[in-house]
Design a protein that fits this description.
single chain, alpha+beta, 2 domains, 7 strands
């Protein structure tokens, strides 16, 4: 990553010398104009940026080209998590929500009383728990709190409040539950582009030139 930022010019901000990364968009636009420069790539489960760099460019030191081509400033958040780490993230993020809203039906299915503390596995299961069909439109069923929004076939979204209280027809609207949405967002990060290795040295030169302009 250090090899990436070394090309960016410095300026003084609030008495500190920092790198000016605002020139990245122009360079990315220049790359996108050539249809042969950027190649699609799908990240495999557990694959790291350094592994891809080593596989495609022949060395892990060119990992910054992957970050640059995909406009990644924070690889930890912009790179897809493994299933293990995704689920750990979901558990920590939604633990309090699950503990407060896990309903009787869910707790019974897990062998829990109304006062038992949910385990990590319980929390994860609650984020994807689907109540009985008769309960899915029941606003008083707190297990429906695991729905982040509702969507239809056209891709439109509505909030839970709109779904329950607007009085509109509920047919054709489907719940997007916590686990499914977090997984969907994570999977969307798998499709990236790679700067064609034939253009690698040219990309480095052009980046240096752009930083000097």
């Amino acid at each position: 990553m250090a090899n990436y930022f070394k090309y960016f010019p410095k300026f003084t901000y609030d008495d500190e010398v920092v790198r000016d990364i605002t020139k990245r968009p122009k360079f990315l636009d220049d790359l996108a104009r050539d249809p042969y420069t950027l190649l699609p790539y799908t990240i495999k489960e557990g694959e790291t940026p350094h592994e891809i760099s080593n596989l495609y460019y022949g060395s892990p030191i060119f990992v910054w080209l992957i970050y640059l081509a995909n406009n990644m400033l924070d690889p930890y958040h912009d790179w897809p998590l493994t299933t293990l780490y995704l689920e750990r993230t979901i558990i920590e993020k939604y633990r309090d929500l699950a503990q407060a809203n896990a309903g009787t039906a869910f707790r019974t299915s897990r062998g829990l009383s109304s006062t038992d503390t949910l385990s990590d596995r319980d929390v994860l299961e609650w984020t994807q728990y689907v109540p009985a069909p008769s309960e899915q439109s029941n606003v008083n069923n707190t297990d429906n709190k695991n729905v982040l929004y509702y969507y239809n076939a056209e891709g439109n979204k509505i909030t839970s409040d709109t779904f329950f209280f607007s009085g509109q027809d509920k047919s054709g609207w489907f719940p997007r539950r916590i686990y499914d949405e977090e997984d969907r967002l994570n999977e969307a990060k798998r499709d990236i582009v790679l700067i064609n290795k034939e253009y690698r040295d040219l990309a480095i030169k052009n980046l240096k030139d752009a930083m000097r302009s």
